[in-house]
Batch of 3 targets.
Target 1
Amino acid sequence: MELGHRSMNRRSWKLGLSLILFALIGIILSAKMITFAFFPLRSSETSSVVLEIRKGTLPNDITRQFILNKVIEDSRSFILLGRLTRQWKNIKAGEYRFSAAMSPMDIFNVLTSGISIAHPITVREGENIYEIADDMEKSGLTTKREFLALCKSKRFIATFPLFAESQPPTLEGFLFPDTYHFNRSQTLEEMVRTMVRTFHSHWGPQEDKDAVALGMNLHQVITLASIIEKETGAAQERPVISAVFHNRLKKGMKLQSDPTTIYGIWENYDGNIHKRDLASKNNYNTYTINALPIGPISNPGKESIQAALHPVNSPYLYFVSHNDGTHQFSTNINDHNQAVKKYQLDPRARSGKSARN
């Protein structure tokens, strides 16, 4: 009996020792994991890296990106930490900024936040969809081709209640000037819808009422506003420019606006208007058509829209640039021709000055 008792004591002692060893190992591993989880690789790191996490990317692939960019060094611990904290299932697609100064838990907090890096896109008054497309492509949010294709998509345009009564040929004119903050987790449709929604927030029942009073619809007002926007940078002149165009339309005169000619040949425009351009026949060139263009030629701001809706009471039918952003207005062709000679044909009047394009 005594021998058996001793044997049991030895087994108990070994078991106890094993449990103590396991407990110590557990404590050490736990301490190691806690240290790994809450302490950055390099606390003094100042550089950062932007990584795009796509939907469905596997934990091993995400971890590999961090290793390659030297954000972390221990891939096994990082993968294990994600499993222990059940964070891998909460990862959200997006574009995020990371650095070695972030702890692994900080990294997971970013990965699960869904708050992607925002890219500012500024639509300036008078910019057209081709210029906006260039900015969108430079930002890496989309390609110029995809942006233009969507802005010209009849199917997409038809989805906007704003155009229920009159559908424009493109979304030109309805991408409201503002600074937008987009991220790569958004679809191109979502980005463009944001621009059109912003326009809609500036066009309400009062604007509809004002348009009806002029005998115009939304599409016609914005087309006119887009021309006004391109013709002058002087705010005080917009209602007068508007009056000139309204007067000419009433008299059945061609608008003869250079910016419409430029827009009609935009993809072949070399920076100068030639005689052949003025004679080119397209739906935008107001030197050859006896009406408003088929659609807007730029994206006008609020002031130009209001000017189109509220022209001043004026007899003017012509205007010519002073070469400083303002214009000389005339009521008849003889006075206009004299103004052209004075401000455009005389090289001294143009020296050191440039009219707004």
Target 2
Amino acid sequence: MIKERRKITELVNEFYHNRIPVDKVREVIMQLGSEGDLEEIENVMKKHWREEKRTGLLEDKEYKLLLDGIHHRINVLEEEKSARTTVRMARILMKVAAVLFIPLFITTVFLLNNRTGNKVPSAIAYNNIYTPMAARTRFLLPDSTLVWLNSGSSLRFPLAFTGKTREVFLQGEGYFDVAENHKKPFIIHTKKLDVTALGTSLDVMAYADDRIVSATLVHGKIKVEKRGTGRYVYLEPSMQAVMDTVTGKMKVYEVKTKYYTSWKEGTLIFRHEPMETVAHKLERWFNCTIYIKDDKLRKYKYTGTIEMETLREVLDLIKITTPMKYKYDKDTREVWLEPI
């Protein structure tokens, strides 16, 4: 076991310091994905990233660009390989890339109180985890709450939950399996909604560039409050609160929750959704840009399920049941949809 861990450590260090020949990078990542202990890889990477944070050599925006570049390369590989090889390669690359680079976003903030002349920390360290486009991430919070983050999402949370509440800050979409603690409500803050839970499983979607934000309850009970208004609703299982950020109106619906939570299992389910909405989700899912040239096509309602297909396979699938054709530039990852 010690020999195996030493081998893993050496491989990760070589990877980090860019000492692996270009033609061997894929082989090393495959080896880490098939043989590596992900916990051991994460421990080694945390040491490197913390050192980078202390020296100030890298900025968060550089990390995000680096991650997006990795996942862009993964998508290119998908176009080049056969379906069976692609799925295996993509899964391994996603898994290892996430473990190698998530520790980048650990940030510590201290506020000092100088009123008494003593420099005493009055706020604690926060983590900020970002999931790039074309990726999904799963991790545990300090209270054992399990979180999945969807593409292009981030979550800010303290290293330890103190006080009477457990509060996190979400941008994008996250699924939370909240650890039960009736003495400390779990609060998810977004730009427009605050969602309070005790022991609950729920999905919250609040992307900055989306007009609609929502909270979908799988089990338990939650309180969904419009920020700054004092107005709120309570949700029972299989209920969804949807708010229009432009009009400020919020409505509650009964839904099939799997349509809104399947993404964490690597599946997108569309049921009578406008093509414009479908395209927007695919952009995040595949880290691409999709242009729709026709208003009627934008409003066309699409139904379908997407799992481990490549972007081109998905476009071909949609084309079968939708009156459209497409052009795809794999170098720029731009797609143009046109009616037929």
Target 3
Amino acid sequence: MTRWLIDDRPATRWTRAYVRGMWLARDKRAFEGAAHTLRTAWARQQGGDAPPTRWTRARRRATRREVAGMAVWSVAPRRTAPAVRVVYVHGGGYVHPLTSDYWRLVRALSSAPAEVLVPAYPLAPGARVDEVLPRLLEVVRSTTEQQPDLPLVLMGDSAGGALVLVLARLLQDRHGLRADAVVPLSPWLDARLDEERVTELEATDPMLAETGLRAAGRWWAGVRDTGDPLVSPVHASLAELPPVELWIGEHDILRPAVDTLAERADRDGCDLTVHEVPAMFHVWMTRAIPEARRTRQALVALLRRVSGAGGRGAGH
């Protein structure tokens, strides 16, 4: 069953100015054309993943360890024991590393109180889905075994929003483990971008462009078709998945695939809640704008509901 919750408040004056700045800075040029997308990806990957910011380290307990050959950051409250665990898979079209904006969101999530695990996974075109998925599964499985009584939430944005849906499916099918909730934020559900409204929406999207995004999807898919459910979870079964809480804005070329996912959720009997904020753009919840702060507060409230629901994490 799908529930659709719409926050139709107009963008604040601050945010309208912020978006104008994104257009002036040509943020979406990072995904304009395959060749330019590849050059931009290599340049950003050479710069590496942004570690937790100084403010995050000052306010939270931030540690780093290696799991399955990847760096995995853990961010948690300094004095309060976590009541829920979040595995957060970052976005970036499968080609861009962690940026400092993510730590603003992670810091907020940890206040639930939560332990938030952020894997710095290998990126395309050097890495492919078949190489990376087993590593991400190992992050979830190994941390769950250490503290099986903590409720588990799989959360991610954009490409990471697709990955957490895939991970939830594989955890159940391959390991018999079930998360307590899956939270895709502005998810890239269809790597093909097949929906009719994608081209129409690109004119209003200050961040994403079709051409480069499609190329990134092909690089990530490797030998697989980009429509494969491991790459495009809009085609995957949602049967028996945990509740899915999805956030999406209207100024986002990834918006049309959410309708297709909702149809599949109804068909498969998945408990899906779509939180639509029409005035917003792609992955707004990481930014320093009022609407992002509201969304972060809603995500913290969700984590608190999960932690108080009496679940026993992925083992139950």
